[in-house]
Input
Amino acid sequence: TGVQTCALPISGHDQPFLSAVTAPYLSLANGGRYTGVTFTPDTDLRLRAGVAISSERLDRFKFDAGAPTGPLALTYDASDSKSLLGGISFDPSRALGLDVSAIVSERSGVPLGFGNAAGIAPRASTQALTAAAHMDLGRGWVTTASFSEGMTQLDQRLTPAANLHEQSFALAITKHGLFGDDALGLSFSSPPPSLAGSLAGLSASNDLPLIVAQGTPLRAGVRATENDFQLGYVTNFLDGAVALQTNAAYQTNFQGQPGATSVSVLGNVKYKF
Output
């Protein structure tokens, strides 16, 4: 089955954010087929493990109009990725929870939809670790803070920089039960510079998998820290069977380019069968 994101919702609630504020690297395993298991030795402790496999040759992504069709669909060099995920969640009290997540992901080939983008190595291997904490402030208010660190090895044959060592952080506050079964959230994050197709990619198609890119070369090597501000709202109907979600995002120094800004607005409807 398809996996929209492998980051589990904090505190068991639906999150109103478009991009993960708890574990951005886990979205490398977005899409494809996912199999996982959760072990709960205690009511306050959960252990998670899973495997995600995404293959354009098998999943037949449709978002690239220039991709071959019919018998020729299997003749191109399709992209595929394999990811191993794990995590621990510990809730010492109802008001406080801690999450630690890890991912090892390998990708070969450039995914469809990124063919014209610069700095994407044909092969990449990523290892990342994220620690996140959430605190229930009462009356539906929940704050979340996370820190991620990742190391990516790129294809040395075509990429001058063979390794990328990056860090990211995020802060968010969410109000649950604003008008009923809903949530309103505001987040600030500094994402890993190499994650291509995060807010912009999701806003464009909501299907593009996140990938690690070296980044667009900048004049004189100047690179600025990207900052993302996001406002999200989600409401549920029919006991959660239907969800309406709207997100607005503002990015500064987009993909490390000083002074570049980006604005994204997205609305979607989710059905549960």
Observations:
- Residues 96 and 238 are 30 Å apart (CA to CA).
